[in-house]
Amino acid sequence: MKVSVEEVKRLREMTGAGVMDCKRALEMAEGDFEKAIEILRAEGLAKAEKRSGRVTSEGVITSYIHTGGRIGAMVELDCESDFVARTDEFRRLAYELAMQVAAMDPKYISRHDIPEEVIESQKRAYRTHAIAEGIPEDMIEEVVNERLESFIQEVCLLEQPYIRDETRTVGELIKEMIARLGENIVVRRFVRFAVGQ
Q1: Quick one: 5-51 is in which CATH superfamily?
Q2: Under 8 Å CB-to-CB from 143, ≥6 apart: which residues?
Q3: Cα–Cα dist 102/113, whole Å
Q4: pLDDT tens column, 141-157
Q5: What pTM, to 2 d.p., does this model score?
């Protein structure tokens, strides 16, 4: 299928992907913009995985203070080059992540950061609750795993639904930015402050 320059330009503006990538995605999707976006997103995530091992020694520390000044957060977001660290897109991402931390109060960056004793403690508590609720023995492990996964999504920044678009996780948002900017991006650390806590 042949796609017009205007369609390619429109998709590029919507996604930030390269011209040739947009053209190919539109051709594969037979002109369907939603399918083309999904193709680009899938490809972007694959590209992001390839970059995940690269060293990130540049970046920014960004803060967000919620209206009223009672909650605030700081995030260190790292990338590979100072060129990318100075871009508006990268800085906007850092600000959005600080806002996410302030709003959702994650405890860890990723599931790999949760101490094993916390996981085991949660499993024991979920198992005890499942038994108390009268859940059949053969279903308890499945219920425990489902509840544990919900816990992980709640306490890990990268697993949380993005506050501006709950159809995506914060991790997916970062991977999309990695694909767009062409560099590895890592949340190095964050802290959240709340008055009285």
Answers
A1: Ubiquitin-associated (UBA) domain (1.10.8.10)
A2: 126, 130, 135
A3: 19
A4: 999 999 999 999 999 99
A5: 0.72
